[in-house]
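Morning!

This is the sequence you dropped in the shared folder:
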Amino acid sequence: MMGRGFEQTTVVQQTHRFMTSCAKSMALCAESAVQANMVKVFSAQVKKNKTPNKVKDFKPNSLPCLGNLKLVKDMKLAKDFQQFANYLPWGFSPRTIDQGEHVAIMDFSKMFEMEKVAAGLMYVDVYSAYPEHNHPPDEIYFLISGTAKWRWGGHRHFRSITAGNLIYNYPYNWHGVKAGPTPVLALYIQVM
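The structure's back. Tokens below.
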């Protein structure tokens, strides 16, 4: 699925523009000082990575679940993402055993120097799920494409969330997602 014509510099530039646009959109969605600060930390890392010497060498990697990337289209950000998505260094999640059949993770630290923040993209294929889990750092998700059932923020039940929303999880909150007839694409941020 890699296609011809992979140019790392072009993919890095497209990814950087995408990250910048996501940061701006998330800043508008932030509903608390904690969320706004997390977005601010992420934005600072994105700005630091504008210079070419911060970019890491990487190889594109596609996974079986990414065959439905054409369905990622809810927002302009999602449509822009389709232009370079297949050239990113995707990996499978350590929280799943599917080896990329249903879920893919793209960690921005595989492409850029990221300090004090873990950030990347989570892709959940149609009618698939990212398992419920919890962890010490708080985390935000920015839903870029897909309408899905999410458990987050201390809620006991899954609730329907649409693209363009920001989801916040306190430390140790159980959270997960179940995709419906469209895949889920979300950007995640954890500040360390």
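Headline: The longest helix spans residues 8-29.

More detail when I'm at my desk.
O.
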